[in-house]
Design brief:
Strand order of the largest sheet: 2-1-3-4-5
Number of strands: 5
Number of helices: 5
Helix content: 25-40%
Largest sheet: 5 strands, mixed
Length: about 150
């Protein structure tokens, strides 16, 4: 992990807080190109957009694809506050995202090793590098507080 990873994850946490304001699960994501520039941002909005695919990662990758005018996100890194679910990991793989960095593990639906490790599936045609760690505590606290208040 680098200082850049922490800085980018802090940006994801700020986006996750925007989800809370909308009553959405607090997850934020950004896509960073090979030069370290942020080219895509997203926070969870499936309820607000009436779209089950409107996860933070998907929205960030959509914006990055528009920025690059390409569905391939070669040499890009996806940062996200929560371990990607199977849908988001598969989308990142299809987009050829080089690296995924997530903060908090998701033992219920995480597809990078917590609930299931889809990155090791034989059928994957491309496997992003998966890294964890920066801001795990902060991301987990946001989620815990959100669900505590909902109950």
């Amino acid at each position: 992990m680098s200082g850049h990873d922490r800085k980018h994850m802090q940006a994801c946490l700020a986006l996750a807080r925007q989800s809370i304001e909308l009553g959405e699960v607090p997850v934020g994501a950004i896509v960073v190109d090979a030069n370290g520039a942020t080219i895509g941002r997203g926070h969870n909005r499936p309820v607000a957009l009436h779209d089950p695919s409107a996860h933070a990662e998907i929205l960030a990758m959509r914006e990055a694809g528009r920025h690059l005018a390409n569905y391939r996100l070669d040499d890009c890194t996806l940062y996200v506050t929560l371990e990607p679910c199977p849908m988001c990991l598969a989308a990142a793989s299809h987009a050829r995202v080089a690296r995924i960095v997530y903060a908090a593990p998701d033992p219920r639906a995480g597809a990078c090793g917590s609930a299931i490790d889809l990155n090791r599936a034989d059928w994957h045609h491309f496997r992003p590098v998966i890294d964890t760690g920066p801001c795990e505590t902060e991301a987990a606290e946001l989620l815990t507080e959100f669900f505590r208040e909902r109950r």
